[in-house]
Amino acid sequence: MDFYLTEEQLAFQAEVKKVVKEVVEPGILERDASGVYPEEIYKKLGSLGYIGLPYPKEYGGAGKTYLEYAIAVEEVSKVDAALGISYSVSTSLFGGSIDNGASEEQKKEYLPAVLKGETWGAFGLTEANAGSDAGGCTLYAERQGDDFVINGMKVFNTNGPLADHYVIFALTKLGEGSKGLSAFFVKRSETPGFKIGKIEDKMGIRTAQVSELIFENAKVPAKNLLNGEEFKGFKVAMKALDGGRIGVAAQGLGIAEGAYEKAVEYLKVRQQFGKPIFKNQYIAFKMAELAIEIEQAKYLVYKAAIDKATGKPYGDSAARAKFAATNTAMHVSTEAVQFLGGNGYMKDYHVERMMRDAKITQIYEGTNEMQKLIVSGSLFR
Fold first, then answer.
1. Which of 46, 75, 82, 101 minimizes the C-alpha distance to 243?
2. What is the CATH number of domain 7-115?
3. Is 15 a catalytic residue?
4. Has this prediction a pTM greater than 0.70?
5. Which residue in 211, 209, 160, 208 sits closest to 186, CA to CA?
6. Is the pLDDT at 2 greater than 80, yes or no?
7. pLDDT tens digits along 13-51
8. Which one is catalytic: 289, 352, 365, 369?
9. Which sequence spans correspond to the domains of the chain?
10. CATH fold for the domain made of 121-231
11. Contacts of 91 (CB under 8 A, 6+ apart)
12. φ, ψ (nearest 5 deg) of residue 154
């Protein structure tokens, strides 16, 4: 069992670190304050091949694995977790839905623009009364000749206001719950009746663009039904969410590492009672505990990514990684604020932003309560 990255992977990690330092980090405090999304930075990540990392080159990807993708999300999220989730949604939720559910012809048509960073991908599953219970969806797609006419609304859509490419899950048969869900590719620029609703004002991940998606007699060609099959939507969504949880786990890992690094820097230079704070054994021991917790989370995240990359079942390992890494993000970032004292509460020191960003990682892509349900279900088969 090898716990170490290869030389090639280490070189890739170093490359991403450099890009993050030079491209992502400048202006992060101003972006958080304004809530303005960094479109040009995202497009830069796309031009470098990062958005399409785990997909074949014939679809516009980079031909790497899910481990390289997790590493990239981790490194981006150390500095900008909002950009990290925008990136993750394009790659894992939109990309994963198309990759898992579409025909070869559809993959070649729908994936390249998103994987190259030319536009954003979004994933429309959640509704006002359908969160953890996806079977509560009411968005309805009625077949009319060569089209489906869609009516209803989705909520909490990351990349919603930015994207031109969406995977939308709608009922094509009423009264069947999750069994009646079908998956559609929707191109906003070619879909009259599809519009963006309320853009959310959020506690954290301030620059991530999250919105309602409103469908009012929106016509979508029947050929946009993924793989031409109705009633496969729930399966497509759940498999995409398994992959998405690895992305969110990597995001949480990055937040934890970023907050930890800020705390280490501060504890080395801040002096109280005539010595650096880290010289206090309580603080040093607490930091040791956090370092161990972060490393435990890292192994779970990388294992889940390797499971997916090597074709092994990964639903359970993704749930474990998501649960552990996002709880670690919340714990470490909260402790970092405490270690920095009054300064930790101030925006200039970054850790309060990281704490705000960390909270949502315990909620989206399946709450951590749902991750315990997934893991416990695998224990007694």
1. 101
2. 1.10.540.10
3. no
4. yes
5. 160
6. no
7. 999 999 999 999 999 999 999 999 999 999 999 999 999
8. 365
9. 7-115, 121-231, 235-379
10. Butyryl-CoA Dehydrogenase, subunit A; domain 2 (2.40.110)
11. 51, 52, 53, 54, 69, 115, 121, 247
12. -110, 155
